[in-house]
Design goal:
The complex is a heterodimer of chains A (262) and B (438). By secondary structure, chain A is of the alpha/beta class. Chain A is 42% helix and 24% strand. Chain B is mainly α. Chain B folds into three domains: 23-65; 93-101 and 226-433, Orthogonal Bundle (MetI-like fold); 151-221, no CATH class. Chain B contains 16 helices and two strands. Chain B has helices at 26-34, 39-65, 74-80, 87-98, 107-124, 132-148, 153-178, 183-216, 231-257, 262-276, 280-294, 303-328, 332-340, 345-375, 387-396, 405-433, and strands at 150-151, 220-221. In chain B, strands 1-2 form a two-stranded antiparallel ribbon. The relative contact order of chain B is 0.08. Classes of the chains: A alpha/beta (262), B mainly alpha (438). The A-B interface holds A 68-70, 89, 93, 96-97, 99-101, 103, 105, 107-111, 113, 120-121, 124-125, 152-156, 169-170, 173 and B 183, 331, 333-334, 336-337, 339-344, 347, 351-352, 355-356, 359, 433, 435-438.
């Protein structure tokens, strides 16, 4: 049995278990008059790893930003780990503490050292003792292979190192779901690999992951499911092998031919 | 083609790092590079040197060599020598510093001034013991009591009012929210209740509180009227209060201006635009004359306190706009990262946004501080005797009639020392907070 089919088995088992991490139903969003997300329906099961791809402006970043309420949706519902996103601030806070997020531009706090970046939220949001938060931060920094830089400031690190710190910072809150918003798009080719390695490692640990990315190699290697979006709607979704080898819609075929040909 | 080389190249070894070339020629070399690097620069350097020498040749003998320190009048000075008549400063120095503060009580403002440095130490330098901040918080009360005297319980009563307001804002929202009130509304209601509670306390209860406690335990200093305060003491009181008050108020206004709550935003924008749109002198006149019409008859509201409030309000409006610039200078990603980690509004402001926004705003903030400090001389318009206000009677005095440079120079020196210190501190702070290169 190949790795890919093994993963398909895994996915079917998750679906069968019915343990839903994120449920999005009939979700619509507008920026002013612009209809940016159109009737999105998506169920993510616990432990599932989904890569979202599509041309720029297709709404894929907006989609995952809706999941932790960095953007508000105007119609439909989003339920994360049993909590429905509404304007109620308590629900938003509960969801944000379950959902970690990594940004394209890392968004580390430049006035705090690496370790302070990682311990800030555990100490101030979870009210953990400093010692405990620091121990966990060191553990995760070690895990993203950056333990020796703990006392430096973000400005002294390379892009790849910063992104790894950002991943560790999110993990320190011990989220059940991780969202990645084009985590490698702002990196030099040599640094992309070090970040992807960390993400593969995270995937192997069983984390539920939603990744907006153009890294098709990564998608092939770890994704359970690939979603292709265009003009605000989900155009096609499938298991990786089927998605790459046998795309159904014309739009998907065109997209794949363009990004795989170079 | 003959002679054409192949483009292929492979480095044969890694080039080891070597130290940079040494600068040649020491001081002489530096002068050649920086002062005499060309004809134009050489001429400019020589002209500048000549100018500096000319000024020094006039000032140094006048101020240091031919100056007179001991005389009882300008005539007396001139009989001794024709330099600066510093005798006037010698004679009036204490008046310049204290105004008409009673001589035997002058240890009180001096003590307050010394304690001021203890109070601002932990605010200025992170190496200071953190516990001192408690002293800093209590210092305004202590300084007020030392300078104005009276019963200790008066200032304590004023602080109790602030505590009442704070307690309302801190503890009421959860109670109100439990009554199914929207969180934003609950907060607004709590702020309203806090302000109202504090105002009622100050208007109706403080005096009774003071009298009651004074009968139990009378701690008091001999009171000194505001009219007797003057000179640098007055400038420092107004300047330091304005600086200490305008920064926090400015931060609140700047945050309020960004708020999504229309009411809060409206109040902040209205305040900022109104105060900024009016000259400080107008505000001082309002404090001096108009305010008495609006207050209940018989209310005694100290003039210096009124001036401090107006100066603080004026500087706060400018401060708010300076800080708004800093807030706008922060990338959106910082707010989003704070949100995504689950920090609530106040925590993300306090831990993420403000430390960075204030750092960006340091030059503007110190600029406003310096402007405010120099603006304190405007109180002369409403008859307060700050150093410039003290000049007029001195110059009108028959003994010192005709003296100009010495007096204004002395006052300028005082302001320069304060403002230059602030400027240097801000540069130190910027260097200190500069971590990593973005």
């Amino acid at each position: 049995m190949t790795a890919a089919t093994e993963r398909d088995e895994e996915r079917r088992a998750m679906t069968a278990s019915g343990e839903v991490a994120i449920e999005i139903a009939g979700m619509n969003k507008w920026f002013g008059d612009f209809h940016v997300l159109r009737d999105i329906n998506l169920t993510v099961y616990r432990g599932e790893r989904i890569v979202v791809c599509g041309p720029s402006g297709s709404g894929k970043s907006t989609l995952i930003r809706c999941i932790n309420a960095l953007e508000n949706h105007q119609a439909g519902r989003i339920v994360v780990e049993g909590t429905e996103l509404s304007s109620d601030i308590k629900n938003i806070d509960r969801i944000r503490s379950e959902v970690g997020m990594c940004f394209q531009h890392f968004n580390l706090f430049p006035h705090l050292s690496v370790i302070e970046n990682c311990t800030l939220a555990p100490i101030w949001v979870r009210r953990e003792p400093k010692k405990e938060a620091e121990d966990r931060a060191r553990y995760f920094l070690e895990r993203v292979k950056i333990g020796d830089q703990a006392l430096k400031y973000p400005g002294q690190l390379s892009g790849g190192q910063q992104q790894r710190v950002a991943i560790a910072r999110s993990l320190c809150m011990q989220p059940r779901i991780m969202l990645f918003d084009e985590p490698t798009s702002a990196l030099d080719p040599e640094m992309i690999k070090e970040v992807l390695d960390v993400m593969v490692d995270l995937a192997e640990s069983g984390m539920t992951m939603l990744v907006v990315s153009h890294e098709m190699g990564f998608a092939r290697q770890v994704a359970h499911r690939i979603i292709f979006m265009d003009e605000g709607q989900i155009v096609e979704q499938n298991e990786p092998e089927a998605f790459f080898n046998n795309p159904q819609s014309e739009r998907t075929k065109l997209f794949l031919s363009q990004i795989l040909s170079h | 083609m003959a002679g054409e080389k192949s483009v292929a190249f492979v480095a044969e070894q890694q080039i080891p790092p070597s130290p940079p070339p040494v600068r040649t020629g020491g001081a002489l070399g530096w002068a050649r590079d920086n002062l005499f690097s060309g004809v134009f620069n050489s001429v400019a350097t020589l002209l500048s040197l000549a100018f500096v020498a000319y000024i020094l040749a006039m000032v140094v003998p006048w101020l240091f060599i031919d100056s007179v320190w001991n005389a009882s009048s300008l005539q007396g000075c001139r009989e001794v020598d024709d330099g600066a008549c510093l005798a006037v400063i010698n004679e009036r120095f204490l008046q310049f510093v204290f105004g008409f503060y009673p001589e035997e009580l002058r240890w009180r403002p001096i003590l307050a001034f010394v304690l001021l440095f203890v109070a601002i130490w932990p605010a200025l330098f992170s190496s200071a013991p953190r516990k001192l901040l408690i002293f800093s918080a209590l210092y305004p009360l202590l300084a007020y009591w030392l300078i104005w005297g009276g019963s200790l319980w008066g200032p304590v009563g004023a602080v109790v009012g602030i505590a009442i307001g704070w307690a309302c804002i801190r503890f009421l929202p959860p109670l109100l929210a439990r009554g199914r009130l929207d969180e934003g509304l609950a907060f607004l209601a709590a702020v309203g209740a806090g302000i109202l509670g504090a105002a009622l306390w100050w208007l109706f209860c403080v005096i009774a509180f003071e009298e009651a406690l004074s009968t139990v335990l009378a701690i008091s200093l001999e009171p000194v009227e505001s009219a007797r305060l003057g000179g640098f003491l007055l400038s420092t009181i107004i300047g330091v209060s304005g600086i200490a008050g305008s920064l926090p108020i400015g931060i609140v206004l700047a945050l309020g201006r960004q708020s999504n709550l229309i009411l809060i935003k409206g109040v902040c924008v209205g305040f900022i635009e109104f105060i900024r749109g009016v000259p400080l002198i107008t505000l001082l006149f309002v404090a001096w004359l108009l305010l008495s019409y609006f207050l209940p008859p018989g209310t005694e509201f100290d003039l210096i306190l009124r001036v401090v409030i107006m100066v603080t309000a004026f500087a706060s409006a400018y401060m708010a706009e300076v800080i708004r610039g800093g807030l706008a200078g922060l990338p959106r990603g910082q707010y989003e990262a704070a949100d995504s980690l689950g920090l609530d509004y106040w925590k993300s402001m306090r831990l993420i946004v403000l430390p960075q926004a204030l750092k960006i705003s340091i030059p503007g903030i110190v600029n406003t501080f310096i402007g405010l400090f120099k603006d304190t001389t405007l109180v002369i318009i409403i008859g307060l005797l700050d150093p410039v206000g003290l000049l007029q009677p001195i110059r009108a005095d028959q003994n010192w009639n005709g003296i100009v440079w010495e007096l204004y120079g002395f006052i300028a020196l005082f302001f320069f020392i304060f403002c230059f210190a602030m400027s240097r501190y801000s540069m130190y702070l910027e260097r200190n907070l500069d971590v990593g290169h973005r």
